[in-house]
Every structure is written in structure tokens, then in C-alpha cells.
């Protein structure tokens, strides 16, 4: 297992949690600068960001499983 693997997992899981728990922050960091008059994200954007967050979290959990199975060999 690489020394950077735990850091990568923390980044993936942290990103997923941020997308699920604070999609407004994700919008402010990544999308707000693209608009002129928008003060807040649309409800659709918030829902889509939460879904992406769950997908990222599932990916992170799968990566943990893979790394554990590799380290047990």
C-alpha cells in the first residue's frame, strides 16, 4: 500500500461529505463566480450535488475495501 493512499482516501471521503452536507459551499467555491446575479444555488443544483456526494462517498468506501483486500494478501 502506498504512503499516499490514506491521504487520498481522506480527500475523497472529505469531498463526499462536503458535497452531501454543505452543497452550498461547493457552489460558492466552484460555480458562483460564473454567474452575475445569482446569490444562491438552485434547488436542482443542491440535489444534484448531494447525489454526487453520495457517489463520491460510495467510491471512497469501495477504495477502502480494495486497499484492505490488497493489504491482506
Short description:
The chain is built from 3 helices and no strands. The protein has 73 residues and is mainly α.
Number of domains: 1
Discrete helix count? 3
Query: Secondary-structure element sequence?
Result: HHH
Summing up helix and strand content along with how strands pair, one would put the structural category as mainly alpha
Query: What share of the residues lie within helices?
Result: over 70%
Describe, in plain words, how this protein is organized in 3D.
- The protein has 73 residues and is mainly alpha-helical.
- It has one domain (5-72).
- The chain is 75% helix and 0% strand.
- The chain has helices spanning 5-21, 23-30, 43-72.
- Helix 1 crosses helix 2, helix 1 packs antiparallel against helix 3 and helix 2 crosses helix 3 (43-72).
- The mean pLDDT is 91.
Quick tags:
single chain, 73 residues, mainly alpha, 75% helix, elongated
List the helices and strands and how they pair.
Blueprint lengths: L4 H17 L1 H8 L12 H30 L1
